[in-house]
Amino acid sequence: MKLPGKTVERLSEYRRTLLECLNEKKNFIFSHELAARLHITAVQVRRDLMLIGYSSVQRKGYDIKELIDKIGTIIDSQVSLNVAIIGIGNLGRALAAYFKGKRSKLNLVASFDTDPQKINKVIAGVKCYSHNDLEKMIRELDIRIAIITVPPEYAKETAEEVVRYGIKGLLNFTTIPLNVPSWVFLEEYDMITSIEKVAYFVKENLR
């Protein structure tokens, strides 16, 4: 069964929250507790978990370890997927540093840049290759996912390149909307839009 994108997002958020609960020495959690931590409804939590075929022991709630494992079987790949960051400026470095070691089935194996000062150096724990070597290294390292953090004026050209070289998933951190073929999954994150959304609700609450 193919899950809606928003459901997959919430499952990832559930797992992250459940891992925090384990660190707090908590073994069981009720849907309303999980919902409160994520500022959503208990109905939404139960609906999502029913979609993946998981239910709680009524008097105890959800078994946290069991639920973490169940979510992993649904959203994690059975095989490791290699990831690259295209554009290792300040944002690219921050993402690389945050990414490393977070998920066993997602491997950040390369970054790419046009700056000669960065090429062939290890930056934020990952080797930087020349942008000119995109095609060669994407194929050689079997990279399936690309995170684009290049300057906006190069975003479309970069996306077209990596798709042409075999990338199947794109995470776009630039401010330029991208168009990709139907066989490529695209996720776009515009920080300006997110900040404007926060600012809107702050403005409304100040009235």
Number of domains: 2
CATH superfamily of the largest domain: NAD(P)-binding Rossmann-like Domain
Q: Give the count of helical stretches.
A: 8
CATH architecture of the largest domain: 3-Layer(aba) Sandwich
The end-to-end distance, rounded to whole angstroms, is 45 Å
Structural class: alpha/beta
Which stretches are low in confidence, meaning pLDDT under 50 for 5 or more residues running? Answer: none
* CATH hierarchy class name of the largest domain: Alpha Beta
Largest sheet: 7 strands, mixed
Helix-strand string = HEHHEHEHEEEHEHEEH
> Helix amount, in percent?
40-55%
Largest sheet, order of strands side by side?
5-6-4-3-7-8-9
CATH topology of the largest domain: Rossmann fold
Estimate the mean pLDDT confidence: 90
Q: How many strand units? A: 9
Rg computed from alpha carbons, rounded to a whole number of angstroms:
20 Å
Which word captures the global form?
A: globular
Percentage of residues in DSSP E strands: 15-25%
Task: Summarize the structure in words.
This protein is of the alpha/beta class. The protein folds into two domains: 5-73, Winged helix-like DNA-binding domain superfamily/Winged helix DNA-binding domain (Arc Repressor Mutant, subunit A, Orthogonal Bundle), CATH 1.10.10.10; 81-192, Rossmann fold. Helices cover 44% and strands 19% of the residues. The protein contains eight helices and nine strands. It has helices at 5-23, 31-38, 42-51, 64-75, 90-99, 134-140, 155-164, 191-206, and strands spanning 28-29, 62-63, 81-86, 106-113, 122-123, 126-130, 143-148, 169-172, 185-188. Strands 5-6-4-3-7-8-9 form a seven-stranded mixed β-sheet, with helices on both faces. A two-stranded antiparallel ribbon has the order 1-2. Helix 5 links the parallel strand 3 and strand 4 (106-113). Helix 1 (5-23) runs antiparallel to helix 4 (64-75). The radius of gyration is 20 Å and the shape is globular. The model has no long low-confidence stretch (mean pLDDT 90).
